[in-house]
Amino acid sequence: MSASATQAKPNPNGAGAAAVLAAGIGSLAVAVLSILADKAGSIKSLMNFYKPTGPLSGVTSCAILIWLAAWIVLHFRWRTRQIPSRFNTAALMLLFLGLLLTFPPIADLF
Q1: What does the alpha-carbon distance between residue 93 and residue 71 come to, in Å, rounded to a whole number?
Q2: Structure pTM?
Q3: 54: left (phi over 0), alpha (psi -120 to 50) or beta
Q4: Angle, to 10 degrees, between the axis of helix 86-101 and the axis of helix 14-39?
Q5: How many other C-beta atoms lie within 10 A of the C-beta of residue 91?
Q6: Which of 25, 44, 51, 81 has the most crowded CB, counting CB atoms within 10 A?
Q7: Pair 47, 58: CB distance under 8 Å
Q8: How far, in Å, CA of 31 to CA of 82, rounded?
Q9: Which value, in Å, is the radius of gyration of the alpha carbons in the chain?
Q10: Contact 46, 58 (CB under 8 A)
């Protein structure tokens, strides 16, 4: 039996990597859209999908659409591939940055 026949081919992790990276993109989208809606009056009125909730309704709805679009695109591109771990690192950085930008003292810097 040859050495190449005994080595197992790793299972593709692209679908999982796509989901994790899309979560990071969606997290950052919430933070950026909420800062924009807070600072720009035109974006604030544009994001007001439901008056009792205010611009938060548009911010979260748009961020969900961004997350879903990123997940779908990445999933179909990566589903059969083995994705390097640097994409997990990028996803964690995006999640951390998104979380950081939602805190008022940091968001108020912009």
Answers
A1: 17
A2: 0.86
A3: left
A4: 20
A5: 20
A6: 25
A7: yes
A8: 30
A9: 19
A10: yes
Residues in the chain: 110
Q: What is the DSSP string of the chain?
A: --HHHHSPPPPP-HHHHHHHHHHHHHHHHHHHHHHHHHH-HHHHHHT-SBTTTBHHHHHHHHHHHHHHHHHHHHHHHHTTS---THHHHHHHHHHHHHHHHTSHHHHTT-
CB proximity list for 71: less than 8 A, separation 6 or greater: 18, 19, 22
Tell me if 90 sits within 8 A of 49, measured CB to CB.
no
13 touches 86 (CB < 8 A)? no
Query: What would the two tokens of residue 13 be?
Result: 């992790």
Q: Which residue has the tokens 């997990």?
A: 88
What DSSP designation does 109 have? T
Mean pLDDT by 10 residues, the chain (110 residues): 64 94 97 94 93 94 98 97 93 96 89
